[in-house]
Design goal:
Strand content: under 5%
Helix content: over 70%
Number of strands: 0
Largest sheet: none
Shape: elongated
Structural class: mainly alpha
Distance between the termini: 50 Å
Number of helices: 5
Radius of gyration: 16 Å
Number of domains: 1
Length: about 80
């Protein structure tokens, strides 16, 4: 099913693919940023998910995603929740 979905995705014209990815990815990022005011861990997964979607078609989003992953590796949860 994954191959069928990927092949049908590639059959779409490039411009239409970019518009679909841009709308869906930017919607995820905007919703993630709007959730900053609400309590809960839903902000970063939505923003990173939006970058993953945008990285499917845009090179700039792929390089930004690599930078986010690099900086995210610096944060160790054990250091954040260290018992004193």
């Amino acid at each position: 099913m994954k191959k069928k979905l990927a092949s049908s995705w590639r059959l779409l014209p490039s411009g239409l693919r970019k518009i679909i990815v841009l709308v869906f990815g930017s919607t995820l990022i905007i919703v993630g940023l709007l959730l900053i005011d609400l309590p809960g861990p839903f902000t970063m997964p939505l923003v990173i998910g939006g970058l993953v979607v945008l990285a499917l078609e845009f090179k700039w989003a792929e390089t930004l995603l690599v930078r986010v992953k690099h900086h995210g590796e610096k944060i160790l949860p054990r250091k954040l929740f260290k018992k004193r």
